[in-house]
Design brief:
- The structure is a homodimer.
- By secondary structure, the first copy, chain A, is α/β, with parallel strands linked by helices.
- The first copy, chain A, has 2 domains: about 5-35 and about 270-365, Aspartate Aminotransferase, domain 1 (Alpha-Beta Complex); about 55-265, Aspartate Aminotransferase, domain 2 (3-Layer(aba) Sandwich).
- Helix content of chain A is about 40%, strand content about 15%.
- Chain A has 12 helices and 13 strands.
- The first copy, chain A, has helices at about 5-15, 35-45, 60-70, 85-95, 115-120, 140-145, 170-180, 235-250, 255-265, 270-290, 315-325, 355-365, and strands at about 25, 80, 105-110, 125-130, 150-155, 185-190, 210-215, 230, 295, 305-310, 330, 330-335, 345-350.
- Chain A has a 7-stranded mixed beta sheet with strand order 2-8-7-6-5-3-4, sandwiched between helices. In chain A, strands 9-10-13-12 form a 4-stranded antiparallel beta sheet.
- The longest helix of chain A is centred in the C-terminal third of the chain and has 24 residues, at about 270-290.
- Chain A is globular, with a radius of gyration of 20 Å.
- The two termini of chain A are about 35 Å apart.
- At the A-B interface, α2, α4, α5, α8 and α9 of A face α2, α4, α5, α8 and α9 of B.
- Chains A, B: It is an enzyme of class 2 (transferase).
C-alpha cells in the first residue's frame, strides 16, 4: 500500500472549499483546553535564563523521563522522549528492521496510514492482516501471516480508526507469535487516556523484551502541536534507538518538554476524566444518530473515532465528497485505511459540533 | 569512521567530575540572551486558543516559511521547516542516497561528527577529504575523490570546527564536481550569522538544482533547545524530503516555530551584530593568548570555534583530560573530528569565560 497521507489533505481542502457549512470530522486534533499548568509552565519558561533555552539531553529532560518511568512502571533508562509519538513509532520500526530479522511488517487492517508509509520509507514491506468485524485483534490471522520474513508486528490500542481496545491476552498471544518468528511488537498506546471501556491494559504489563510501547501527550493534553511523545524500549534495543534519535533530531523541543513536565506533575486526574467524559458523551450522541440513520458501526471502546457504514453508500472518496456537499459533514473515506473497510467512513469526534453532525447524518440517511 | 558523539559526553562528564574549576569550551551552545521578541512571543503563545496548540502544517508554519523564503530569496515551496538544522541535514542526506546514484558521501576532514554518523545510519559510506591547512576547501582533492559511487558532498560554512568560510567560487567548483558524478551538495550554513570575515556568501546564490542548503535559528537566536531549522530543497527533491519529514516527525514543535516567527519579524539587525561582535572580541582575546602560548591556529573567519595545536602536546583524549585537570580548560580532542587534526584541540568560544580560559592557556603553555 502506498503512503496515504495526501487523502487527509485532499478531504480537508475539499471541505474548506465547499460552499455550505461543513462540520470537520476529519482531523484527530483535540478541540478542548490543554491543562492550565501547561499554559502556566510556558509563561514561566519564557522568563528562564538563556541556558534553559539550549539543547535538552538528547533522550529528553530527565524530570520528564523520570515522571514517565514512574507512571509507566519502567526503568528510567528504557525511556526516550521523542518528537511526538510519530517519531517514537519511526524509531521502533527502524529498530525492528535494523536487526536483519526480515523486512516484513504485519499491520492490522484497517490501518493508520502512517504505519505503511513509515515501513516503506524504511525499506520494509507491509502485509495487512484484517481485524475482526468489531475491530478486535484476529490473533489466528496474525499467526498465520507471520513468517521468518516478519520483523515487526505493529498494534495500536485504543485503535485508530476502529476504536477497539485490545485484550491483553490477545496482545500476549501476538507477542508469542513474534517470539516464534523473531519479530518485535510495537504497541502504540497514544490514546491510552481515552479508554472508554475501562478495560485497557498497557502492553508494558507484559514486561516482554520483544515489546516496544509508544505513547505521548498530544492527545491526553490536547497538544498535538507540541510534539512530545516517548518510546519505552527493552534493554537490547534502547541504545540503538537513542543513537538514531540523536542522529535524526539531536533532541526534541525543550519549551514543549518543559511545559509537559510541569503539566504532568500539576494536573489533577479530573482533567483527564473530564476529557474522557466529554468524548463519551459525544460517542453516545453520535451512535444514537447512527442508529437513527440505520448505519452499521462498532461502538468505540476508546480513541477519538467511529467507523460507520451506510446502506448503499460505500465510503469512497466520491461519496465522502457528496457527504460534504449534501449533508455538511466531512469524514475520511475508509479506503484511506487499507483494504478491509473500503465501504466505511471514519468520523473523528474531536469537534464541539459532533452532536450537530450526528443530527445531520440522521436526517439525511434516516429520513 | 564511527559515530563519535559519545566523545563529547565523555569530555563533558570528565570536566564536570574534575576537582578544580573548569571552563567549559566543549559545547556549542550560545551563552547570550535570545531576542526579547522571542520571550514575548512565547508568553503570547501561552494565552492562545486550543486550536493554536495543535499540529502546525508538516512543512512548518506558513508565516515562518514565507519569512525564510523572503530572506533567503527562494521559492516558498522549496522551504521545509525542520526539527533543527540536524533534521534538515538528515533529510538532505537521505534524499542524496535515495536516488540510487551511489552510496558514498564525501565529507571534509576535519568533520563535524554528526555527518559520518548520519551517513552510516542511512546505509552510506563516508570518505573523508582533508581540507587545506587553514581549513579552506581543497577542490582538487574533492574532484580527485569523487566517482560514480559519490551520491553526496557535504560542506559546512562557516565551518565547525575549523572556522573557515568557504569562497563561493570554491563551492561552485564543488557543485561542478557533483554534476559530473551525479551527486547532491549539502551546504550547512547554520553559522551564517557568525561570519566574522564579511565574505560569507550563501550557496543559494548559485541557484543550482544540485544544492540543498540547510540552516536554522539555534545559533543565530541562541536557542539550540527550540529545534527550529530548515532546508531549502531544489524542485526535484523537495517533495521526497517533505514526505520523509512527515513520516519521521509529522511536524516540528509549534510553540518553537511561533516564537521564532515573531522573533524573526521583530528583532533588529543590532541583535545579530551584537552577538557577532561579542564573538569577535572573544576571538581576539583567545588568539592573542594562543600567540602568547606559542600555539599554531587558524584565526576563525566564522562560527564559534578555534582549532589550536600546542607544541609537544597532541590533542589526544589523554591530553584533553590533562588540560582539564592541570589548566582548568576543557576542549574537544581533534581526533573526534576525523583523521586530519588528531594533533589539534577545538575550543568553543561560547562562554563568558573565554578570555579567562585564554589566560590560563597562555600561562600554562607560554610560561
Amino acid at each position: 500500500m502506498e503512503y496515504e497521507e495526501p487523502k487527509f489533505f485532499h478531504v480537508m481542502q475539499y471541505a474548506a472549499a465547499a460552499d455550505g457549512d461543513v462540520i470537520d470530522m476529519v482531523s484527530g486534533n483535540p478541540d478542548w483546553e490543554p491543562p492550565a499548568a501547561l499554559r502556566e509552565a510556558l509563561r514561566d519558561y519564557a522568563d528562564l535564563s538563556p541556558d534553559a533555552f539550549q539543547y535538552p539531553p538528547s533522550e529528553g529532560l530527565r524530570e520528564l523521563r523520570e515522571a514517565i518511568a514512574t507512571r509507566r512502571g519502567v526503568d528510567l533508562d528504557s525511556v526516550i522522549v521523542t518528537n511526538g509519538t510519530g517519531e517514537a513509532n519511526y524509531l521502533a520500526m527502524a529498530r525492528a528492521f535494523d536487526r536483519d530479522a526480515g523486512d516484513e511488517a504485519l499491520l492490522t487492517d484497517p490501518v493508520y496510514p502512517y504505519y505503511p508509509g513509515k515501513v516503506s520509507m524504511l525499506g520494509g514491506t507491509s502485509t495487512l492482516v484484517p481485524t475482526e468485524r468489531d475491530g478486535g485483534l484476529d490473533v489466528d490471522a496474525i499467526a498465520a501471516a507471520a513468517s521468518d520474513e516478519t520483523a515487526l508486528i505493529a498494534l495500536n490500542t485504543p485503535n485508530n480508526p476502529t476504536g477497539a481496545v485490545y485484550d491483553l491476552d490477545a496482545i500476549r498471544a501476538v507477542v508469542s507469535v513474534a517470539e516464534r518468528v523473531d519479530a518485535l511488537v510495537l504497541v502504540d498506546e497514544v490514546y491510552d487516556h481515552f479508554d472508554l471501556s475501562g478495560e485497557f491494559e498497557s502492553a508494558l504489563t507484559l514486561d516482554s523484551d520483544r515489546v516496544i510501547v509508544t505513547s505521548g501527550f498530544s492527545k491526553s493534553m490536547a497538544i498535538t502541536g507540541f510534539r512530545v511523545g516517548y518510546g519505552v524500549f527493552p534493554d537490547g534495543h534502547v541504545s540503538a534507538a537513542k543513537t538514531r534519535h540523536m542522529l535524526v533530531n539531536v533532541a526534541g523541543a525543550r519549551p514543549s518538554q518543559y511545559a509537559v513536565t510541569h503539566a504532568l506533575a500539576e494536573t489533577d486526574p479530573e482533567y483527564y476524566a473530564d476529557a474522557r467524559d466529554l468524548l463519551a458523551d459525544r460517542v453516545d450522541a453520535f451512535t444514537d444518530a447512527l442508529d437513527a440513520a440505520g448505519a452499521e458501526y462498532s461502538r468505540p471502546e476508546g480513541a477519538f473515532y467511529v467507523l460507520a457504514r451506510f446502506d448503499d453508500f460505500p465510503g469512497t472518496m466520491a461519496n465522502v465528497k457528496r457527504l460534504i456537499d449534501e449533508v455538511g459533514v466531512a469524514g475520511m473515506p475508509g479506503e484511506a485505511f487499507g483494504h478491509a473497510r473500503g465501504d466505511w467512513i471514519r468520523f473523528a469526534l474531536v469537534t464541539p459540533r459532533a452532536t450537530e453532525a450526528a443530527e445531520r447524518l440522521a436526517d439525511h440517511f434516516g429520513g
